[in-house]
Specification:
Layout: H1 21-40, E1 44-45, E2 51-53, H2 54-57, E3 73-75, E4 81-84, H3 89-98, E5 107-116, E6 128-137, H4 142-158, E7 165-171, H5 172-181, H6 192-205, H7 208-220, E8 223-225, E9 231-233, H8 239-250, E10 269-272, E11 280-283, H9 284-292, H10 296-314, E12 322-324, E13 338-349, E14 355-366, E15 381-387, H11 388-397, E16 410-412, H12 420-432, E17 437-439, H13 447-456, E18 461-464, H14 467-472, E19 474-479, H15 480-487, H16 493-499, E20 503-507, H17 511-516, H18 519-527
Parallel strand pairs: 1-5, 7-12, 16-17, 16-18
Antiparallel strand pairs: 2-4, 3-4, 5-6, 6-15, 7-13, 8-9, 10-11, 13-14, 14-15, 18-19, 19-20
Length: about 525
């Protein structure tokens, strides 16, 4: 949009954001900790391009003249459609299939980068955002899924979130078996009507965290009217079907059903009371087997849970960090086995002023069908993705990630224009010692502006060498951080001028040594390695 003067108005497209140096520094700090955990588990980085052929992405295939539903697309000069990646998993599947003969198997990799969604933006909902993924491709056993859960837990611990999260685990086969058991058919083809009904029921289960039992019950039956008065039609299930689903969905969260000593266990002990009988104790998975074990798919999912349990317990993660949670429903048309989600459990205030838990910052699961779109043989895969921006927001709320402007460079002031070569020599000496430094390159006429510039850059110090200092072989160092701290106690301008808080002089040949003694500079050099 141009103004009357012909100038273009500077404005961001909707759903995108600029990132400041403080944002970038905070994110880099967090990503470095995540990367260290991934590499400790034996994962290596790989990078794929932002663009992929649209058919490669799989989820949003072209069904019109322009395939722009959900993705940003353009047509190449060979008339092939390309799209910006909407996640990091579909490009990985293409990369693995294309390099199948040369890659090690299993292939263990992590990726970090931006993804793009052509969706309506809103508060906290962007069209470009960063993800950090880890995947194992070519490992079929639930041991790989258990390892993903353990790595998610270690990542949260490394970020300082110990005791403030839980990795919640479910299994798509258990959900599919439940749907079959109540008469809605299995996952591999029934009638179109049953397929649609089963998918509708699964979508309702995915709303449990938000709507609770009353909302889910209404949507499983005849429908629900929300707070705005809008009516959502229900799935039309009968009470026997609804009661079995609600029992499955809530059994872990019902306090009266879980024994106190096992409340945080991966597979807790339940106190159950069958119709007409007394209470008895059973672990969660045995209760599932007794209730729905006649379905082969359900039983297969329970067996995978037990295999994961043995790995998790043996590795020392049976302390509540990882738990079975039947209410986790993710990627209804995507995942094929175990699914998992990292939930941060500390309270925050939502936009309605209500206290709620922070919620999910990432998740994943097994997706054995994605690579198979490219190759005839089955290729199992499992992985998880962290929402970088959302996790960074959580860490800032807990005080574990700062939002301060990074320490800037030492600024060498230009006091005499004809001495710029000497000032540049100072800069070179500081840089050679690993210290960030720059010579002021603006208009040097006003020294006050040079100080203001250094302050705006969050510089730890400025170097001053005028004619008098040069003749004496000395320089003035103004410690801006110490000066700010000392000036808080000085209210008189004359006192401030006479004391010059934070400013001291030294010999010219002591420049690097004296600057290196400043705490902010020493910390910066240490951080930069």
């Amino acid at each position: 949009m141009a103004s009357k003067q012909g100038l273009i108005a500077p404005r961001l497209p909707r759903g995108f954001e600029d990132r400041t140096s403080a944002d970038i520094a905070a994110t880099n700090e967090m990503i470095a900790k995540i990367r260290e955990v991934y590499e400790r588990y034996g994962f290596d980085p790989v990078e794929t391009p932002f663009f992929e052929y649209t058919e490669t992405l799989g989820k949003f295939l072209p069904d019109a003249d322009r395939p722009n539903q959900g993705v940003f697309s353009l047509q190449d000069d060979d008339e092939a459609w390309m799209s910006l990646r909407y996640d990091l998993t579909a490009p990985l599947a293409r990369h693995f299939a294309e390099n199948f003969e040369t890659l090690p198997k299993p292939y263990r990799t992590y990726r970090q980068g931006y993804v793009f969604r052509n969706e309506k933006p809103g508060p906290g909902r962007f069209r470009q955002f960063m993800q950090f993924d880890a995947d194992t491709v070519g490992a079929a056993g639930p041991e790989a899924d258990a390892e993903m859960c353990m790595m998610m837990a270690d990542t949260m611990d490394a970020l300082g979130l110990a005791g403030k999260y839980v990795v919640r685990v479910n299994n798509r086969k258990v959900l599919d078996g439940l749907m079959s058991w109540i008469g809605l058919g299995g996952p591999n083809g029934t009638t179109p009507q049953l397929d649609a009904k089963r998918l509708a029921v699964m979508r309702v289960l995915d709303k449990y965290d938000r709507l609770g039992v009353p909302g889910v019950k209404a949507l499983l039956e005849q429908g629900r009217t929300d707070e705005s008065g809008d009516f959502s039609p229900g799935a039309g299930l009968d009470w026997d079907q609804v009661s079995r689903i609600l029992w499955f969905l809530t059994i872990r969260s019902e306090d009266y059903a879980v024994t106190e000593s096992s409340r945080a266990a991966f597979n807790p002990i339940l106190r159950l009371k069958p119709d007409g009988g007394g209470f008895f104790e059973s672990d969660l998975l045995s209760a599932f087997e007794n209730a729905y074990g006649s379905d082969a798919v359900f039983l297969e999912g329970v067996c995978e849970f037990r295999a994961m349990e043995s790995m998790i317990e043996a590795a020392g993660y049976g302390d509540g960090r990882i738990r079975i949670d039947p209410s986790v429903v993710r990627g209804l048309e995507y995942y094929t086995g175990p699914v998992f989600e990292i939930e941060l459990t500390f309270p925050v205030t939502n936009d309605k002023g209500q206290q709620v838990v922070f919620g999910s910052v990432g998740g994943g699961g097994r997706y054995d069908g994605l690579v198979s779109r490219f190759r005839k043989e089955p290729v199992p895969a499992t992985g998880f993705s962290i929402g970088v921006s959302r996790l960074a927001h959580a860490l800032k709320l807990t005080g574990l990630l700062g939002n301060e402007q990074p320490t800037g460079p030492v600024v060498v002031c230009v006091m005499d224009k004809d001495q710029k070569a000497g000032y540049q020599k100072m800069v070179a000496e500081l840089r050679a010692a690993g210290i960030r430094a720059e010579m002021y390159l603006g208009n040097p006429k006003n020294v006050g502006r040079q100080f203001a510039y250094a302050d705006q850059r969050n510089s730890p110090a400025v170097i001053i060498e005028g004619t008098q200092e040069r003749e004496q072989g000395i320089i003035q160092i103004k410690d801006l951080i110490a000066g700010k701290q000392a000036s808080r106690a000085i209210t008189d301008n004359e006192q401030w001028k006479s004391e010059r808080p934070g400013q001291f002089e030294c010999r010219r040949d002591e420049l690097v040594a004296r600057i290196s003694e400043l705490p902010a500079v020493a910390a910066q050099v240490k951080k930069r390695g």
